[in-house]
Amino acid sequence: MKLNRNFNNLKENYLFAEVAKRVRDYTAQFPGSDIISLGIGDVTIPLSNKAVEACKSAAVDLSTVSGFRGYGPYDGYPFLKNAVVDYYKRRGVDIHADEVFVTDGAKNGIGNFLDLFDEDNTVIIPDPVYPAYVDANVLAGHKIVYVSATRENGFLAMPPKRVKADMLYLCSPNNPTGAAYTVEQLKEWVDYALENKAVILYDAAYEAYIEGKGIARSIFEVTGARDCAVEFCSFSKMAGFTGVRCGWTVIPMGSPLNRMWLHRQAIKFNGTSYVVQRMGESMLRGGYDDTKRMVAAYKDNAKIITKKFDELGIEYTGGKNAPYIWFFCGIDSWEFFDALLKKARIVCTPGSGFGKSGDGWIRITSFNTKERTEEAVKRFDGFWKEFTAVKDKLYTSLK
Ligand code: PLP
Fold first, then answer.
1. Atom of ligand 1 lying closest to residue 105 CA
2. N or C end of the chain: smaller count of CB under 10 Å?
């Protein structure tokens, strides 16, 4: 037996596993502590009734002779593919149902998509970044080139001048920074991809949070993107489906990747369940307003946090078009994580866990209730004032 030797190149600790371990150690030492999690990016608002009704009615379908279904199409049922097409159309983007592939979530889509590529590929990955891109590409044996997203470029990596890559990842609105690309900025990436015959793997898992004018909700708003891009999307953060599991991938028909992905899915995937696809459809049709309410509630929490950050003079980005706020703590990220947990019983995510450029930075999320967010902000206020007073004496300062 020969194991995948690329496994040896993975980092030992997955970021969120280390966060969970430190929280476990803390609660073992201080049992019953009232900890507020602004760490892991999981949703907290329960499912919309519309999704639950769609779930029940789909289950009833399956219990009748006429409504029973076995294996579904590898690329998803037409009712959901058409709902996705209409969802894009409402935003002025034309795609065809044959370009939509239903998945059981964006992460699976993004990771499994690498089956279509040879090992001999150079891939651009922004730094900091959602860790799954890095690990999936390490496993695939690709050569990774990092492009920094820092305060100097508004936390949005732009095409490097002297690197020729075959593939590149963009995530907008971004996890972890919350920064989002304008159509003009994305055009630079599309031009880069066309010039280098590269493919853009565009992660739009948080597109529902975009409110600003000129900010792209889909890579396909950009001229030329149909010739070089693939888009991954998800019901997870727009409809609270992190446990339900449903998403989609858009692959333009002119691309060989469209046919190859259908073939790959036919080999390794038997489809997202009928019940779940009906739930997804309900969120893009009659239940769409419920998704808007969920997103608005998380964004209200983000406002509570950024208002306090403004008051305290903290340097941050995000929170406007995303559920993430990325702020400068100025010390080693894990040191800050430990201090915030110990002194304020708040869990955050250390920026260094998302890449080298993240050191000195912290990600917090707005995925909580309003009450808990307000309580967290109250605790943070006291913590930050004390922290800044002793920072230079007690901690290792970063620029
Ligand atoms: N892409 C990004 C940037 C994410 O942050 C996440 C989840 O946190 C995902 C994809 C995964 O989404 P899904 O739940 O659809 O697999």
1. 15
2. N
Q: Which long-range contacts (CB under 8 A, 24 or more apart) does 195-200 make?
A: 196/164, 196/165, 196/166, 197/166, 198/124, 198/165, 198/166, 198/167, 198/168, 198/228, 199/166, 199/167, 199/168, 199/228, 199/229, 199/230, 199/257, 200/168, 200/169, 200/170, 200/225, 200/228, 200/229, 200/230
Q: Where are the alpha helices (DSSP H) in 113-246?
A: 131-139, 183-196, 236-239
Quote the CA–CA distance of 1 and 319 in Å, as a whole number: 48
- Ligand 1 center to 205 CA (angstroms): 6
Residue (of 174, 176, 129, 178) closest to 319 by Cα position: 178
| Predicted TM-score of the model (pTM) | 0.96
Which of 134, 175, 210 to mutate for ligand 1's pocket (most ligand atoms within 8 Å of CB)? Answer: 175
CB of 250 sitting under 6 A from ligand 1: no
